[in-house]
Amino acid sequence: MKDTFKHKGLRQQLVNILKTKGITDTNVLNAIGKIPRHLFMDSSFLDHAYQDKAFPIAADQTISQPYTVAFQSELLQVKKGDKILEIGTGSGYQTAVLCELGAKVYSIERQQELFKKTSKFIPKLGYRAKKLIFGDGYKGLVDEAPFDSIIVTAGAPFVPKPLLSQLKIGGRLVIPVGDNVQIMTMFTRKGQKEFEQQEFGEFRFVPLLEDKN
């Protein structure tokens, strides 16, 4: 669990790359500059930890590209104390970014192998999610709703209705929608049944699978 000056330097370079790609939220950039991404990865990929690329992790999943993590985090406009639901804990990297931004994070992972690994690992780095849950992200987390925002870190062929219904008025759902290529989409809840939808271009994600536990 080493984090060296070299790693810190590489992170700063990564932050500079994200700035050139248009990420402007200083809190998000600071979080990415602080979190040791190399510790979230398989040792065989350590040299690649601070490249702006996605890489394989356990259970045929990936750790998202830093730009994607930064882009989704920026769309959420996280304020300290925000209650955020994350669908797809994965390696826990996005979870750590949200914690670093001061959010109260509830995160659901459907891959048991990843869930076990990540729920032991994140606290070792000092990041405490409010709850890490093994389950089906399509259903959201009714018991803890409503949320200030919801982030989906896997490609969804459609927008799960339960997630929209679990947003606070004014809350945001950021979700990549589509089959092979996803369109990053944000829904802002304007009223009980009223949502504003915005699209932010194409991204590629591993699929969000339903009822696979």
UniProtKB/TrEMBL annotation:
<dbReference type="InterPro" id="IPR000682">
    <property type="entry name" value="PCMT"/>
</dbReference>
<dbReference type="GO" id="GO:0004719">
    <property type="term" value="F:protein-L-isoaspartate (D-aspartate) O-methyltransferase activity"/>
</dbReference>
<dbReference type="InterPro" id="IPR029063">
    <property type="entry name" value="SAM-dependent_MTases_sf"/>
</dbReference>
<keyword id="KW-0489">Methyltransferase</keyword>
<comment type="similarity">
    <text>Belongs to the methyltransferase superfamily. L-isoaspartyl/D-aspartyl protein methyltransferase family.</text>
</comment>
<feature type="active site">
    <location>
        <position position="64"/>
    </location>
</feature>
<dbReference type="Pfam" id="PF01135">
    <property type="entry name" value="PCMT"/>
</dbReference>
<protein>
    <recommendedName>
        <fullName>Protein-L-isoaspartate O-methyltransferase</fullName>
        <ecNumber>2.1.1.77</ecNumber>
    </recommendedName>
</protein>
<keyword id="KW-0949">S-adenosyl-L-methionine</keyword>
<comment type="function">
    <text>Catalyzes the methyl esterification of L-isoaspartyl residues in peptides and proteins that result from spontaneous decomposition of normal L-aspartyl and L-asparaginyl residues. It plays a role in the repair and/or degradation of damaged proteins.</text>
</comment>
<keyword id="KW-0963">Cytoplasm</keyword>
<dbReference type="GO" id="GO:0032259">
    <property type="term" value="P:methylation"/>
</dbReference>
<keyword id="KW-0808">Transferase</keyword>
